[in-house]
């Protein structure tokens, strides 16, 4: 199993798809990296030679922020927004959408599926014992 920056890449998938298992690498970045390294994107991950794997590993580690570093950067960015009391930071604190979505409807996943309308989500009345 090829291993890139601490992530085991699935062997049975095409390398273009398998690279997306690394946090911070999407499909477009994956195809861009493979094109720069002149690796066939239709190859399975297990068919890669050790030279190709090392080229991939070096390219990704040198040029891109991925996995733990990227997660740490994202949490630090949100923490900074909270510390400076920006509008987006306050939305993060309240666990509400921070990018301008409407909240009257369609944000139940963020709010924890709270239904405040009269008819919907009502529990059946308790049975008399």
What labels describe this entry?
single chain, 129 residues, Helicase, Ruva Protein, domain 3, 30s ribosomal protein s13, domain 2, 6 helices, 2 strands, elongated
- CATH fold name of the largest domain: Helicase, Ruva Protein, domain 3
Radius of gyration: 22 Å
Look at the structure and give the mean pLDDT: 88
Number of strands: 2
Largest β sheet strand count, sense and barrel closure: 2 strands, antiparallel
Work out the helicity level.
Answer: 40-55%
Q: Tally the helices.
A: 6
Query: Stretches where pLDDT falls below 50 for ≥5 residues?
Result: none
Order of helices and strands: EEHHHHHH
> What's the CATH class of the largest domain, please?
Mainly Alpha
Global shape: elongated
What topology, given as strand order, has the largest sheet? 1-2
Class by alpha and beta content: mainly alpha
Taken together, the total number of domains comes to 2
Query: How far apart, in Å, are the first and last alpha carbons?
Result: 61 Å
**Per CATH, which architecture of the largest domain?**
Orthogonal Bundle
Percent of sequence in beta strands: under 5%
